[in-house]
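re: ur question from earlier - yeah i can do the single chain one, its not a big deal. heres the input i used so u can compare w yours
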Amino acid sequence: MEWAFSQTQLLLITWVLFAFAAACVGARLIIRYRICNRLLIDDYFAITSLTCLLGQAILCTVAAPTFTKVQNVTYYGHKPPKDFKHDIALFQRYQWGTAYTFFTGIWAVKFVFISYYGKLTDGVRPHRAVWYALIVYAALAYIACLVAYPLLNYRHGASGVLKSQSIKVNFSMDVTTDVFIAALPLSLAFRINVPLKRKLALSAIFSLGLVVTIFAIIRFTLCYPSGKPYGAMWLLGWSAIEFSVAVMISSTISLRNLVISRRDRKSSDVYAKSGKASGGRTGESSRSAGVGRSRKIGRERERSDGDSEMDIELLDRPVDALDIRESNIT
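and the output i got, formated as tokens:
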């Protein structure tokens, strides 16, 4: 197996995945604005993550020729050119830039989930305390990654190529934060008094963030191959893959709300039309049912404004419509 990406492969991976991520975030923002008439804090974290992803894509494009030169020498064994020391110095600067952009963007995605799930803990004191602790842990983990990168890097070999041990720290902070974030809503889902089928459906939704964890594990496994050498663009390419998938996953729940919103509108229209089509008491009853249904949907939309759009019954209702409080939890 060749542990290297070519320049063409790197740029193709980077920009194709960025296009998909940009589409997901754009759809998320449109949906949120249509439902709530404004953007919420998790949307701004999503915008931050997409901005960092764009910055990394631009850095990859600019740095690709330099990374190719370094990879040709350090991985393929080509003879170093005369200006190779300059290429190494430039390579290290680009590496630092892409690393810090990656850390910032990945943690912005984590705070998308944290801020989104925080709405579920409102009024549930034990989980609210855990949510605040999770914010502190995520912030400290981010700082640890920023500090570990310069401290745990060292020069290796006569060429002075920068080899990083900080990927271990980054990996541990990345995975543990993801697991803690997923554990918070999952613990709520299994303590709410709803049928098991709905609990499992909610758990599946809340576990979407763990997909990012899977890609983090893949990235670590392939980019830290037990002493095997890998190309200069190998880690950069897999970082772009994990980063892009994280941005896309963070917008998945909001994308599904478009379907729910349209379904609610259709349901209210059907009830209203059935009321108009019927006569006498049946007509009045149907109209009353239609109006009642429409008002109910309207109230639920108002309640979701500024709150969570996730619902407990397969997203049939906003989660706060269930009134998740201590009395609802076993």
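The radius of gyration is 24 Å. not sure if urs matches, ping me
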